[in-house]
Amino acid sequence: MKSLLMTSSLLAMLCAAASPVWAQDNQAPAKTETADDGNDIIVTGRAGAGERRKSEMSYSVTRIDEQALRMQAPTSVTEALKSVPGFWVEASGGEASGNVRARGVPVDGYGSIQLLEDGIPVQHDPALGYLNADQVFRIDETIERIEVVRGGPASLFYSNAPAGAVNFIPRQVGDHAEGLVKVMLGADSLYRTDFWVGAPVGDWKVALGGFYRSEGGVRDPGFTANRGGQLRATISREWERAKVSLDVKRVDDIVAFYTGIPMRTYADGKIRAVPGFDGHKGTVAGPETERVKMVMGDGSIYDFDNSVGTQVKRTQITGKFEFEPWDGWKIANTTRYNDSWTQRNGVYPNTLQSASSLLTSQAALLAQAPGATALQFRYVTSPNQVFDTANQNGNGLVIVGGLRGLTLPVKEFMSDTRISRQFEMGGTHDLTFGYYFANIDEDFSRYSSTALLDVQDNARLLNLVAVDGAGRVLKTFTDNGIYKYGYEWEDARGSQTTHALYLADEWQITPNLRIDGGLRWETMRARGTVGLKKTVSLGTPATSSISTGSGVYANYDSNFNRATWTLGVDYQFNRHAGLFARYTSANRLPSLGNFVTSPTAKPIIQTMDLGEVGLKYASPLLDIYATGFWTKYNNVGFTNYRFDLNGPAVSEARYADTQTFGLELEGTLRPARWFDLSATATLQDPKYKGLTYVDATGKSFDFDGNRLIRIPTMSVRFVPGINLFDGRFRLQGSWEYEGKRYVDTANSVRLPAYATVNLSARFDVSKGLSLYGYVDNLNNSLGLTEGNPRAGELMNGDAGANTFIARPLIGRNFRAALMYRF
After folding, report:
1. Alpha carbon of residue 158 to chain centroid
2. Taken in order 85, 89, 91, 96, is the CA torsion positive or negative?
3. CA–CA distance from 256 to each of 48, 105, 197, 290 (Å)?
4. Percent helix, percent strand, percent coil in the chain, to nearest 5
5. How far, in Å, CA of 286 to CA of 309, rounded?
């Protein structure tokens, strides 16, 4: 209630302050999240010498401009995509490591879409084995707009883009010096400053921009969760028939990764956090797991530092060149070099159970402590405090957690060259021939240990001890809360080379009819080594079975190739309305990420067929885009990972076919200057086809026709907006609904439907000064975005349990920003 009163007071103050300070004649309301009347030029998902508007495209595309981005103020790359129909986005893990599932493709992370910056991949494989592309990319005020292609020709022009591509397009310098500075504060101890300035300098144009922020985090781990930023410098020049640019960006940033928390289904049928844990703001990670010295198999120490979270140090250099040697000809090249170093640390709740049941399962340990009569849990930092197995923290539960650290240095060189030619032959052809090259070098190392934790916000470490009848500790089986060192160990390195040739043609047969088609041939070679493991004992219970390197390495050298083709037709009834249809045969080649833990098992090429039919209408009053789609995904790869406290974790690679029929709706209604309504909706029927499973006992399971993992059949988003005082004040809200989903292929664990509400407001104090306010998750929804992936994705171990691990939405938060443009 206090938060709602604060919000109401803020809005009242804004309205009271709305007496004219400056006059701006004939100002139209700011664009809404999807408003564009179809006239915006689209550059993503096509190549050619000419330009095309959104209303002329033969595929589905969403354009999010800078006004919409500022009103939404997304906290992550993934959050920025929640207005895109056909995409199910999950950003409850924080600023990085989000999940996007596009058009019914059940692949985690960014495995179904490609992430681009200025038309070339941020990372060649956006799902490179624990290294999603959103971990090395940050949105700031140097980005002008986002273009999102769903399906269609994305896989023709870009590698690893079977279901779409997202292009973040940087701000360009105009004919005059200009810039902006934006300062943002948040209730979660957020302090952030963005800036961008650009100006002509002689015949050249230069720009400098970036951001820096410090943030405790809505789910506060007890230390500063997010800190750092990035800096970008750009220099460019244009001639009559040519232009060049050089862009250098340095990222040095740390963000927290929020994992699942203990949840419970209560008698009223509602799912909330267990007693003693704050479901809205709590996190398992805390000061006691912030820094842990983990013993390795050779006796050395692995310094686990969770305050680092996901730390990225990245230098990115991008060069662009365009040349028109003759009328109708265009030669373009974009080249990018990345040198990234990522450290990804996290505290993972592997399993959740009652303290009494865990002690019972360890009863055999009593034999190792002569004279002992019972096992107990004692707090590491309070060794005389006995854990109350009946009601400690109001729940009596214990988490078997994983302290996991990964180090991933990656160097990439990518180059995309295109030659386009317009000519007349039975109509107008816009023909493009392209060549894409990529070389990637990656190292991969991982080390993890098992910790025993109580269940409260910022969980505390527990020791497992044996005591006599008087309660005296006779033996301690853990080492400062560590039950087992080294339950995971990996050491791998490899290189990958990709070559792709593609040919595309846009054939305008008549002023109303156009046929677009293209073919891509891609080859990939992966070479590298993977360290083979052994188990060693260093003489203590916690070091009795450490996974470590055997000194033997397995080599791999594999080649893959596949063709992609697409064919689309577009018919324009008039400049406002049109109809399109498209069929695409796409694929996703393996990458280095497929080899880091399985060097001897050659991965397969995942293939898919995608069809779509779309109706589009754009006018000043109403924009509406409706697309029916069909996706058949062959050999979808996923890992059925199951954690085992007393043995190595089970990790099974599985494959399945899927089929999804769906409908995407996107539109904006502008009945008056003071009001507009934007909406997106996705209705789909995602199913597995022919998925059978045989467990370790030989029992067979048939999951044919079951729903795909974590993909809802219905997603809806409404964004009403009010514009007052000649557009100087805008207030908009969003209501987002996600239907029920399932954690596993057996559909045995259901994630209930949920809805959440967000508010944002903008008030132009003067021509250059604007004030923004945001309320995220106003209704404090605890909508579950995922279950426990460490309990198995085929048949989840949490099936039937009323207390379990799941990851809900991040709780309500308030932010405010002040921006000055000059």
Report:
1. 19
2. negative
3. 42, 27, 30, 12
4. 5, 55, 35
5. 12
Token digits for 506?
């846009």
- Quote the CA–CA distance of 408 and 343 in Å, as a whole number: 6
Q: Tell me how crowded residue 592 is: count the other CB atoms within 10 A of its CB.
A: 27
- Token pair recorded at residue 541: 């219970």
One DSSP character per residue, 81-135 reads GTTSTTEEEE-TT-SSS-EEEETT---STTSSSEEEETTEESSSSTB-SS-BGGG
Q: Look up residue 71 and give its DSSP letter.
A: H
Token pair 């992609």: residue:
564
CA distance 634 to 640: 18
- Tokens representing residue 210 in the block: 């970036």
251-295 per-position pLDDT tens digit: 999 999 999 999 999 999 899 999 999 999 999 999 999 999 999
pLDDT number for residue 45 = 78
Contacts of residue 396, Cβ cutoff 8 Å, sequence gap at least 6: 354, 355, 356, 388, 389, 390
DSSP-derived pairing of the beta strands 428-454 and 462-467 = unpaired
Phi, psi dihedral angles at 592 (to 5 degrees): -55, -30
Cα angle for residues 103, 702, 86 (degrees, 5° grid): 5
CB contact at 8 A, 436 and 418: no
Q: What are phi and psi of 355, to 5 degrees?
A: -60, -40
| Distance between CA atoms of residues 632 and 574, nearest Å | 33
Looking at the chain, how many residues does it have? Answer: 822
Residue 46: per-residue pLDDT: 80
* Residue carrying structure tokens 């069809």: 611
Which amino acid appears at position 707 of this protein?
A: R
**Quick one: DSSP state of residue 708?**
P
567, 549 contact by CB (below 8 A): no
CA-based R_g, the chain, Å: 27
The one-character DSSP state at 297 is T
Query: Chain centroid to CA 265: how far?
Result: 28
Query: Could you tell me how far CA 453 lies from the centroid of its own chain?
Result: 28
Tokens of 125: 């494989």
What are the tokens at 523? 């080859």
Work out the angle at residue 682's Cα, subtended by the Cα atoms of residues 678 and 688, and round it to the nearest 5 degrees. 165
CA distances, 584 to each of 391, 633, 634, 637, 685 (Å): 58, 12, 14, 20, 20
Tokens 């144009």 — which residue?
Answer: 205
What sections of 441-534 are H helices per DSSP? none
pLDDT tens, position by position, 745-774: 889 889 999 999 999 999 999 999 999 999
Q: How far is Cα 444 from Cα 593, in angstroms, rounded to an integer? A: 9
Four-point Cα dihedral 245, 248, 254, 259, nearest 10: 40
Collapse the DSSP code of 365 into the 3-class scheme (helix H, G, I; strand E, B; otherwise coil) and give the result. Answer: helix
Given a contact cutoff of 8 angstroms between Cβ atoms, the answer to whether 664 and 715 are in contact is no
DSSP state of 12: H
Which two three-digit tokens encode residue 548? 């470590």
pLDDT at res. 18: 35
Separation between Cα atoms, residue 586 and residue 605, nearest integer Å:
10
Average pLDDT per block of 10 residues along the chain, 822 residues long:
38 35 34 52 77 82 93 93 92 91 84 95 93 95 94 92 94 96 97 98 97 96 96 97 97 96 93 96 97 96 96 98 94 97 96 95 93 96 95 96 96 97 94 97 96 97 96 96 96 97 96 95 96 95 95 95 96 93 94 82 88 94 95 79 72 80 96 96 93 77 89 96 96 97 90 96 97 97 89 80 93 97 96
**Residue listed under structure tokens 């007393």:** 646
Q: Judge whether 720 and 707 are in contact, CB under 8 Å.
A: no
CATH architecture label of 2-821 = Beta Barrel (2.40)
Whole-angstrom CA distances from 770 to 434, 765, 816, 822 are: 44, 6, 11, 12
pTM of the model: 0.91
Between CA 700 and CA 698 the distance in angstroms is 6
